[in-house]
Amino acid sequence: MSHYQQEKKRSAIYTHGSTAYSSRSSAAHRQESEAFSQASAVSSQQQAAQAYSLGASQFSRGTDVSRKTASAYDYGYSHGLTDSSLLLEDYSAKLSPQPKRAKRNLLPGEETENLPGNYMVPIYSGRQVHIGGIRDTEEERIKEAAAYIAQRTLLASEEELTASKKSTASKQSKISKQATSTLQREETFEKKSRSVAIREKAEELSLRKTLEDTQAYHGKLNEDHLLHAPEFIIKPRSHTVWEKENVKLHCSVAGWPEPRLTWYKNQVPINVHAHPGKYTIESRYGMHTLEINKCDFEDTAQYRASAMNVQGEVSAYASVVVKRYKGELDETRLHAGASMPLSFAVTPYGYASKFDIHFDDKFDVSFGREGETMSLGCRVVITPEIKPFQPEVQWYRNGAPVSPSKWVNMNWSGDRATLTFSHLNKEDEGLYTIRVRMGEYYEQYSAYVFVRDADAEIEGAPAAPLDVVPLDANKDYIIISWKQPAVDGGSPILGYFIDKCEVGTDSWSQCNDTPVKFARFPVTGLIEGRSYIFRVRAVNKTGIGLPSRVSEPVAALDPAEKARLKSRPSAPWTGQIIVTEEEPTEGVIPGPPTDLSVTEATRSYVVLSWKPPGQRGHEGIMYFVEKCDVGTENWQRVNTELPVKSPRFALFDLVEGKSYRFRVRCSNSAGVGEPSEATEVTIVGDKLDIPKPPGKIIPSRNTDTSVVVSWEESKDAKELVGYYIESSVVGSGKWEPCNNNPVKGSRFTCHGLTTGQSYIFRVRAVNAAGLSDYSQDSEAIEVKAAIAAPSPPYDITCLESFRDSMVLGWKQPDTTGGAEITGYYVNYREVIGGVPGKWREANIKAVSDAAYKIDNLKENTVYQFQVSAMNIAGLGAPSAVSECFKCEEWTIAVPGPPHSLKLSEVRKSSLVLQWEPPVYSGRTPVTGYFVDLKEASAKDDQWRGLNEAAIGNKYLRVQGLQEGVSYVFRVRAINQAGVGKPSDLAGPVVAETRPGTKEVVVNVDDDGVISLNFECDQMTPKSEFVWSKDYVPTDDSPRVEVESKGNKTKMTFKDLGTDDLGIYSCDVTDTDGIASSYLIDEEEIKRLLALSQEHKFPTVPTKSELAVEILEKGQVRFWMQAEKLSGNAKVNYIFNEKEIFEGPKYKMHIDRNTGIIEMFMEKLQDEDEGTYTFQIQDGKATGHSTLVLIGDVYKTLQKEAEFQRQEWIRKQGPHFAEYLSWEVTGECNVLLKCKVANIKKETHIVWYKDEREISVDEKHDFKDGICTLLITEFSKKDAGFYEVILKDDRGKDKSRLKLVDEAFQELMTEVCRKIALSATDLKIQSTAEGIRLYSFVTYYLDDLKVNWSHNGTGIKYTDRVKSGVTGEQIWLQINEPTPNDKGKYVMELFDGKTGHQKTVDLSGQAFDEAVAEFQRLKQAAIAEKNRARVLGGLPDVVTIQEGKALNLTCNVWGDPTPEVSWLKNEKPLASDDHCSLRFEAGKTAFFTITGVSTADSGKYGLVVKNKYGSETSDFTVSVFIPEEEARKGASEPQKGDQKSK
């Protein structure tokens, strides 16, 4: 009994059902949620305490422990599942590290320090990122984790016992207060006696202790222990129902995490929202149900239940057949998209007896590379076609079904099946078969897929291993196996490195420090319960190769634990809890393990296996492994640091070749038991030997690109994985792998070989120990198709019938067996009363044509026929029995059917159809033919004619085909009586251009000979080229000559003319219809004859004719360029019909690489006027080019040469690279500039205007080679002649610029244009007089014309509306604006050529605001004009002697006349006799003091005021006494004398 079972027994609680924890009834949920809502505001500890108090108090009136236990369990877990986050929090916070009744020291001494303590269960720490499977949201994962805890712990601990009594009491008091209202709603409790309360308290504490101990044990477990893939406990069952009935499909699934189940109909997910009321999907207590309501005929389908979790996916299938009463087939429901059961074979005409399944556009042998994408596919044609019925399509690899995965995707589009590899691996290599089943009938097709190794990151590194599989999984280790690669990179593989990665992470770690050679390895150091993936890398002396494809995830669990978890009950929760009082036994020391054995031994490790002891108590046990050298009794413990938990163990670090014995001890909390019996002597080394090499390698021919290799299997080979085959071209010394995935058996077909090449082969075997030596090389074999008997002919038809004979026709076999068909044999038999008789031979000697006349037949007798084809390999199988034909005289007027239809030159949009005329032509000769076409899958009423009028030819090129579509054809003959019966069908054929298709090419050689050429890369040794004109062989034609060699052929025209018009075609026999044609019409004949003439009498083609050019020094270059010149090309130079030669005057040069021919002359003189000719001779080709230099043409050229000569001389000293020119800058200034060259420090530059030197402020340094003169605000005064001179000791150069008349006007226009462009946008400004519109320019010139317009009309200037320029401002003044002045104003600046406009809209708000501002400014101006003010007359300071009279007069102004008042020292001053104040005529104010005294000193002010304002004018009066002044003057010298003393 396991420790887990002991804990269950100890807790005395047994439950039934795994889904009850997460799927409780709604009534219970509502009751629990009321209590839970009262505790939602407290902490997790408070919630746990309240849960216990409620669980105990609800059942306090009884002493039944089982009732209390059930209540606590039900309440605690229902709340944990209602709020999963609460359960997770409480569970993770209250795990106890010490199980019930467990002793303190399980192991002696220091070993206890290595045991894990306070282990917390992580919530899916390894599932955040996983390989394959599904990903849930955080909420879903928490719910899954909560369900896991509920299943594993059985009873939840809701209170932490480590809290002190004081804190516990306070928390309980708070919780009891909060739970009072809940307890009162549920029931009223009676008062209890003290003894009853104590007993109940004790029982409650006992229950808590049980819960805590159970939780503490399971706290040490990792939740990932439970991870396992989905598994159907109950699979859905197929049903057959009548229409309008309901049907339910049921299934039950186990797995952890809880699988997600999806229902499919014919591989399409069922959407209940898309079909309201049609489907009902339910999941209750682990039982999943799909209900189909009111079934109809369209519900007949295959249904799939797909269960998926992070560990994988599994599906279960069920078929639903909806039956209807006889005679009720509703043809209107037979539409595309519906499906029928696979067992049905129904047609619109009743029940079909057979379906004909045909594969078209099939996938061939395919080659891919690791990491690439590949797609296999073929078109499936099913007849009869019943659209509502879909076939079952299944793919197989090496005979095993292929399932969809992240690597492989399968698709069925209704008529095409595809298998797509998103990322090829060598594991994908193999023989792929597609099987299509329709009812009880199926067809299949197979082809091999080869996967080559990906390019190595390190050149010379080995290829990646393959098929990495976990063989044995335990708590402590997992054994990984793999297959060795076929390619070692050129040096032997030294070993392999194994990498591991925990599922949910992307961190890879290496498991072994040194490479291992054995292809199995136990990986240790795993965390129990965690899931891992693995990969393997090979290493040789060059480096480490690419990693293999990762393995499937595997959990580090004991097999027994996995089986127990998968087999736990899954029935619904019954609510029953059984309580027992049985106590487990404790303190039992376990006995010795049994059946200890060495299960695997290699040079790197040894694996031990044993059975647990029978006597071990109720606790979990652990194991210690000991080893001993043979010949001694010195036993050493191997796993001293950590005991083993599972009954298997892998030992490393053993000495290779040394002998050991092993034994195992068990231990638990009671102590360490006795050791087991020791194993037999084990020698460290590989027990599995490397297999011996295979023998007798025999290659045999297969196809033109493949060879079948057979061999004798390795003798005494153990655990054989398979064989690797390699091929090598004879004499190359280079070996290539034929397969990258080991094949079993003793025969393999090597594909991808070169036709006609000779190969040798070798084979080696492979098992886990390694690869064998290579076998001996096979004999060389040439790659070509093997010869076999031909396939049967087909489509036997009667071409003509007489009284005692019949003419038969048939179609040639699809395959000739690799050899030419030498003849046919015909058999016939009588059919009397529907009963066939015996077969008889119609011909003893083979007939060569696909038609034969059988004589000596009985008139009015029915016959059947068979035909067999023969080649040098023998007689092929007979054809299918023909239909019945009656031997009678044909008397019909219309012709019989054409025969021997042949399709050739098939391309993506065209093909050629050929036929033979009917054997029976009717009463009158055949006058023509009609050709009909339809798609292969179309019905018979969809034939369409290709020609409206009958054609006389026995061939037709069919155009306008749709690429990828399959077609069939037929031909009908016509005579005067009418159209005869159609021929047998030709096809089906797919309109496509096959890869590598070549066409007939026309060629004209150097001698003008015209030929048609064709090349074929797919010929067999028996293939021949057959040329035809208008599809009639040209063997005896005197107009052409045919020459064939190897895979090339040429038909040469002896004298091409109108007699050669027609279609020329070339067929290649013994191939799959390879042919091509070429049309020669009248236009093509003209082109070819012209090309032939050109080749017979060739000319040297020229790129450019003879030309002349002047070089830098005034030299003259004559040149021309030919298309191409050979090394023997010669040129003659002719001047005025006389040949000239190289000398002082003429220099000649020929560049044969570029075809350039040149002749140079230093200068042109008068006698050089004339005609120049270059004559070219290049082999047979000739050519010439002439240049005439006479009259004005020559004089112009002579002047240009002299000018260039002078220019070159000028440039020897300082000179102008660019002559003087002008430019208008952005600031509207004029910049005169020139570019100089060949200057030095001593070079001077001088500027002149009108021959007067211009002083320049700065000396130019010539660094940038640009000289400039800036003229600001350019105007008429700046017109004139400007000149700049460069000079130094080497010479001088000058440049002159004329800026007068037209040149000046052009410059001024540009200046004005720049000024106009610098104008700012028009602005609106209000003034006291009116409104002003204005714009600013850089500066203004009179040459810039300004025009103003208002609403499209030019403005007439008046005193009220004026225009002007002030500085850089151009304005328009509108005085006293009126509403008529509203509108759009345009200012046009005319630069002499172009007008530049600026616009402003003076209307609406802009006008209103401007007028308002104008009124305000106007009133302010009036006020300012008429306000009272002092115009002048008063001094600032008046100094007067005492006794004198003071008279002051000043003028004032104001309208109306201002009021005048006076102030003295800021106080009003009134007029009196002493001080007279007068204001006369409203303009003059008088201030008079008759005799001033010191009292009159002070500050005075004149204040004038009217309604527009006031103003004050201040002055100061200072009165002095003469005597005081004299005294002051006398005292000043005295003070000075005193200071000097």
Could you walk me through the main structural features you see in this protein, from its secondary elements to its overall organization?
With 1541 residues, this protein is mainly beta. 15% of the residues lie in helices and 39% in strands. It contains 14 helices and 100 strands. Strands 46, 47, 48, 50, 51 and 52 form a six-stranded antiparallel sheet that branches. Strands 2-9-8-4-5 form a five-stranded mixed sheet, with no helix packed on it. α4 crosses α5. The longest helix is centred in the first third of the chain and has 26 residues, at 194-219. The chain is extended and about 175 Å long.
Q: In angstroms, what separates the terminal alpha carbons? A: 136 Å
- Low-pLDDT runs of 5+ residues are 1-139, 141-191, 220-225, 326-353, 567-585
Strand fraction equals: 35-45%
Got a strand count?
Answer: 100
Which structural class best describes the helix and strand composition? Answer: mainly beta
Overall outline: extended
Number of helices: 14
Helix content: 10-25%
Radius of gyration (CA) equals 57 Å
Largest sheet: 6 strands, antiparallel
Mean pLDDT: 78
